[in-house]
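Recap from last week: sequence in, structure out.
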Amino acid sequence: MSEKTGTRFHNSIQTNGTLISKKWIRLFKSMKYDVGVSYDGLNNDLHRGKSTDTIRGFELCKKLKYPVGTISVITRENLNLRAQYEELKKYTKHMKFTPCFRTNSSNFAVEIEEYISQLKLLFEHWLLDSNTTVLHPIVYYIREVLGILETKECVHAACLGRMLDIDASGTIRICSHVADDAFILGQWGEYANISDIFNGEKFNSVVSMMIEKRINCKNSCRFFSFCQGGCCSETFLSQSGNVDFSCEVIRDFMPYVETRLREILSTSETLEAYNPKFIELVQEAVCKNPLRLKWLGNL
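Predicted structure tokens:
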């Protein structure tokens, strides 16, 4: 925390893990860094490579009792989510699967129907697993249904005006997901202060686009409070004929999670057969939002 302003800082780093060493781990511990490793599991060599070095980094972190998380990009080649989950839980207790949605430059995008089908299979598999891994987006959706979701990812949190992407060359983008000129706001050296960045024509055109999108979503979708109209990059890409991937997933998967949780909480006298992390989430909901939980089950 800054003693001068009272501002809290949280440090994290995303890496492929290939150069993790004892020296780096000591530094991460001393600086209280959260470390995420980009690793695509069984198919890592297809798009990232150096899997042996990444696994060596995992094993070293495990030996020195330094927990790391993983982020895996889901493409057509690694769409067997249950197999990916089983592979990754050897190395981490906190994993996240991020589907590769269609962009102007991506040839690896998964089909929505296939991804949703795999996500449901993974959900059922995780529910009955004894492993305590925090699995996103599964846990993220469960927390929303239970009424205990407190923080949101940028794609569901109306991020415009709160975040910027600045690459190594100093190029400023509204979002790193889109390389289109409409999202490029110029170079860092062109601005006297950050507020000037948010007052430009390009930025405000994207804001106008999202205001219109959110008005439509709020009037037509019951999940608006969860997604806040979705991701600005996906909304922009959808104007070129691409499907709004996250929107379609939420509309299909969220009702599925609601139905399954209602079944579990209404019929199970005990939750002992379920994932310990799931039980922990239900217990948290009992404390924080018992009325929501009563709606889901006969409590």
